Amino acid sequence: MKKNGLFILLIACAAISVGILYFASTRHDVDIINIASLLPFDGSEADHGEMMRKGQILAMEEINAKSIKKTDSLNISFYNTSLKKDIALDKMKEANGKGINFFVEIYGSGQAEHCFNYAIEKNIFILSGVNTKPDLVELGNGSFYRIMPNDATASKIILNWAIDLSLQRVAVVYANDDWGKGLKDATVKNAPNYGIQITDTRDVVKNQPSFVAIVNQLKALQADGVFLFLYADDGGKFLKEAQRQEFKTKFFATENFSGTKVVENAKDAVEGIMMVVPASSEQSSLYENFTQKYTKRYNEKPTIFSIKGYDAVNVLYEIILASNSDVEKAKSLIKSYKGIGASGEISFDQLGEFIPGNYDRMVFKKTNNTYEPIVINK
Amino acid sequence: MFLELLKYGFVFGILLSLISLGFSLIYNILKIVDFSHTDRLTIAGYSFYILSFHLNIFYSILISLCITVIFTIFTERFVYSSMREKGTSALMLTSFGFSIVIQSILAILFTSEIKPTNIIEHAISNTGFYLRELILIPVSLLFLGLLTLFLKKSKTGISIRAIISNNERALFYKLPIKRYISIMFGISGLLAGIAGISLSISNGIFPTMGFKYMIFSFAACIIGGLRNLTGVVIISILLGVLIIFSEAYISSLASEGMALGILLLVLILKPNGIFGEKLREI
Amino acid sequence: MELILSLVTKFIIYSIFLISLNNLMIGKSGYWAIGHICFFYIGAVVTGILSVIYHFSASLIYLTFFIAPLISSVIAFLLSVSTSRLKGDFFMFISISIAILCNVAAEYIAGPSGFSGINRPAGLTSDISILSVSIVFFILTIIYVKNFNRHPLNRIYSLTRTSEKSAMSFGINVLRNNVKIFILSSIIASISGILFAFYSTGTDPQRFSLNEAVILFALSIIGGIDSIKGSIIAAIFYVLVIYLLDSLFSGVSDIYATKIASLVFGLILILAIKYKPNGLFGKRKI
Q1: pLDDT over threshold 50, residue B281
Q2: Cβ-based contacts of B253 with chain A (< 8 Å)
Q3: Structure confidence at residue C47 as a pLDDT band (50, 70, 90)
Q4: Whole-angstrom distance, CA of residue C184 vs CA of residue C33
């Protein structure tokens, strides 16, 4: 009987806490602009989530320091998705229940896609900085926008460079997740149009124990170049291993390699690595400004995730101000939006897809004891 | 290419054998699967990471090894020992809970980002090895030899073997079981510490850095036959080679599945492991 | 309101799974099936394969209620045959490695982020209808388990658990009983997986990792072996309490929320084992 009492007590506790969750759902200050950000703070990609959060917080603080009226100030509520689709949707429901219609991020293409039905139904506006799955904007049906080129576009940019260097046989190393796999698929699909033969594709799992085998096999292939669709940490480890095995070829990387993580991991092995980065980002005053502030605030250099998080908040804030927090108006406004962020030019086409600006080609070179990417545009 | 893969697979296997040796030592003495064993790699990695900013490499390795050993012994003394009478299942779950606690404390203190150490290393010309790896191979073989010698010849070692083979009889002879358990945990902590420092130099540190190795050392221990330490080492090295080969010829995703697939086969065909003596309990 | 609906549905689905794990698998056979989650996953992934890869129509997708339990019972059969040779930790290893292998296989089939866009069966298109179907399954499972506990077979299982040798000496076919209970629990687990796939219209590898498997296992131990109340409390903890802890702490400090939540969970686990080795509602020690 004692057990039954305990059981009922526990059930009652659960019911009461659910009730609190439901009734305490409008605790936000309604006068200011509320947006939400769904990021993974635990699980395998917790580090990326934390980096994005840092960038977003910096943008929020900047906006709040500038805004004079109280109604112009911004509050970002962060929700942890644990990189689980159903939890991402639950958190979106929770945020929407508190009256938030603008979302600055849903980390992960799979997670975002999972939320689309609800987002369309509830007229929610999502602006993402990282999701690159090709048909995501189409699937989002007006509720999803992004400031990151989709995989098809990104693969063309990198293939163009390979063609200019007249490479013919290229191998691909990709991170085995939504982004890496999508980019690899797009590259394999587009390569024949450029007359480039993809000789091999190699997957890298998260926290890969060693890159010995991959480097060894790629070395045996004698490819003209290698595309590295990897995150900064794994990329750095790959380069270190390539240096150890004296694997010398042309390595191409995406903007993931910007920031100091690659250099920290690969040390001097990073010399000569080629990287495509959105134009006017690395040297523009905006980027410089952002990097300085970020370094001052967090005592470390920003990564691509923090830059994209920072830009997404700024773009969304401008759109919310212009549309006066009206989602329908925001949806029409974003198509004509034009601006420059820390990550380069930002504009959208009529369907709402992000149009990437020009890209800079950069090569890592040694400058005063550290390695930094230097623009080599022709 | 083939020979090179073999070479690097051997090095990876040596690293693996350090971890799985500690794993099987703990299994033997307490009869539990210690889910928190690979967290000792993480502890070693983090202490080395912090120390390497302030001290030179030699001292930071030495001190972080000491920290790991002390941490391991303390884990046993303050967390595991009070649970020992509650049975192996309780102990196993405790180790899992403890592992969660350690990982979340590390994540709170240092965030979950991957942090590379500031050690710059270059391959020694004509060998393709790092100095770290060249040191690791003889050190771990030496440790294995010393360990076998210790267990076979020394008085303490013989007593420990007595505990391993029959706990109750050891109690009867009034052997100081607690002390011997601490010794075993210390040794396994030392081995894990060596592996952890090597890993932190090559892969950077993060709270869950040991997780992958838990699965691999799991597999190596069982396939090798838990009681036979030499068997565990041999299988670890073979498994290391196999993982590298399956990464090279199939895919990285497959390497984990490969190790576990073989584990399954061995468990079904030869439940006591390849080198194991008969210890099936019915 | 939608949030509560979603949490309750997940709670019901996980209750079904935990009852199959706790009351049938561990409770009756006594085997430490940490990898039991693989049957849950098989249910979800098979539904995904039928719906996304083979484009089964909304009425045809009902077939998954036959196909997925069939596949998982085949695997459960193979697993239960291995119990004739392995016991204790060794079985746990087999169970864990099957769970991880399922994960790797699913990643090959469904891609790194799993299936999305699984279509729901005809007549079950709304969230509420899925919830009501889940409740029906939930009640049926509970009734079945309660009946099972009263059945003479239960005595046989409890004898087998304490000593396989003495059970054999009474002429009990231990292997056949193991096969029976393994297949039974795997079928229930895979049905809960199917419901989960239909509810969330997708599969999610993060939901089926080894970490989650051990957490679910540990929770059912905390709840108490072979007790339905324990399983329900474990499901409440897994679905609601972890979510609530996360929400609660995210008001204080969003980045540390889950870390604090998992720290609390780890401490609860250790303390529960120390001070309540029977679990909250269990009659047996772990």
Answers
A1: no
A2: 176, 203, 205
A3: very high
A4: 14
> Would you say residue C42 lies in a domain?
yes
Q: Which residues of C touch A50 (CB under 8 A)?
A: 255
Is CATH 3.60.10.10 the right assignment for the domain spanning A151-279+359-375? no
At A24, is the pLDDT very low, low, confident or very high (cuts 50, 70, 90)? Answer: low
- Answer yes or no: same fold for A29-146+290-356 and A151-279+359-375: yes
Least confident of A57-61, B66-70, B162-166, C16-20: B162-166
The two tokens of residue C204 are: 């999610």
Q: What proportion of chain B, given as a percentage, has pLDDT over 90? A: 27
How many CB atoms are closer than 10 A to CB A288? 12
Query: Could you tell me if A270 and A242 are in contact, meaning their C-beta atoms sit under 8 angstroms apart?
Result: no
pLDDT attached to residue C20? 93
Count of beta carbons in the 10 Å neighbourhood of residue A20: 13
Given an 8 Å threshold on Cβ–Cβ distance, is A7 in contact with C202? no
Residue B145: its H or E element: helix B131-153
Q: Give whole-number Cα distances, A194 to A149, A335, B74, C48, C120, in Å.
A: 20, 31, 62, 35, 42
The CATH H-level superfamily of A29-146+290-356 is Response regulator (3.40.50.2300)
B242 neighbors B262 (Cβ within 8 angstroms) = yes
**Gap between the Cα atoms of B115 and A235, Å rounded:** 14
Q: How far is CA A261 from the centre of its chain?
A: 15
For residue C179, the enclosing domain spans 2-213
Partner B contacted by C269 (CB < 8 A): yes
Using an 8 Å Cβ cutoff, are C18 and C12 in contact? no
Please give the tally of structural domains in chain C.
1
Contact C101 B264 (CB under 8 A): yes
Given a cut of 70, whether residue A274 has pLDDT beyond it is yes
User: A334 pLDDT exceeds 90?
Assistant: no
Render pLDDT for B170-225 as a digit per residue (tens, 0 to 9). 777 777 888 888 988 999 999 999 999 999 998 889 988 888 888 888 888 888 87
Task: Determine, yes or no, domain membership for C282.
Answer: no
Chain A: residue whose CA lies nearest to B110: A47
